[in-house]
Amino acid sequence: RRRVLSGIQPTSDSFHLGNYLGAVRQWVELQDEFDAFYFIPDMHALTVQFDPSVLADRTRMSVAQLLAVGVDPARSTVYVQSHVPEIAQLTWVLNCITGFGEASRMTQFKDKAAKQGVESSSVGLFTYPILMAADILAFQVDQVPVGEDQRQHLELTRDLAQRFNKRFGKAFTVPQAYIVKEFAKIYDLQNPTAKMSKSAETDKGLINLLDDPKRSAKKIRSAVTDTGSEVAFDPENKPGVSNLLTIQSALSGVEVADLVAKYEGKGYGDLKVETADVLSDFVTPLRGRVDEYLADPAYLDGILADGAARARSVASATLRDVYDKVGFLAPS
Ligand code: TYM
Whole-structure pTM over 0.80, yes or no? Predict the structure, then answer.
């Protein structure tokens, strides 16, 4: 069976709407058709400022959210990155076939390093995309469902796979990014030309799935809209309104065109109120399910133990092949 893999960082208590619509929702759909691997990249969470006292809890909360949105551990392999040491081992080999200049061109690194100053950025932040390449290449993956901001990292992953295969013999499947255009970039409600992100200056434009829906409704009501009063889908001239239409459409299953027709003769106020209602209908049961999973940490840990065992069996086969191909002496 063809394989799909993706990850979401445990850098916050809650997934945000961009994470969900841009990526995680697709994970749920793809697990029917693919052999699916979904994981929490806790090693990636160390590449920026992190708090050791909350990381384990956030890792469990991330798993609880994955299950609550419909990732099914009976069909998908669900695991934590640091439980699969073969990933870090493979990263070293990939580090050694990545050009320094090539890594320096990663725009996410440049953005993050510029924000916090290059001098105070870690080497981990610099090699982050290579760890991500190992996450993927260790598992012989066909498709990687992500948002637009991960596209360049996927390109690097493909380049490294092709380079290794050519230089040392075929060890890796060359993966493809699976990016759904309509949802590849959900925008900040206050700044609808920037992506929704937990590292934005304020969280006023950020919708967290686990927040009280009343709080999110307030944020939606004060979302920046556009001049004019007509509800139209026009991302270029009406980015704020278009973003709300995208969100409401995704959560309700009603086509954007049908929403636009429905709002004919109505104003932005109706669009906002109804978008908030649709969000509330979605997150209210979700929050309940997350709480139920969190109340049973032994169940979650059992899923992660099974997931790590399956993940290690796949990753260790790749690693053994890679070690042979680069000429490491096998331990006796
Ligand atoms: P992360 O944890 O930042 O985000 C998880 C997923 O959410 C997507 N995303 C968005 N999509 C649409 N609109 C937005 N505003 C938005 N914000 C975030 C991201 O594109 C991502 O798909 N490096 C990855 C995690 C990772 C990974 C991997 C992914 C580590 N190893 C291997 C795939 C395969 C990251 O930081 O995603």
Answer: yes
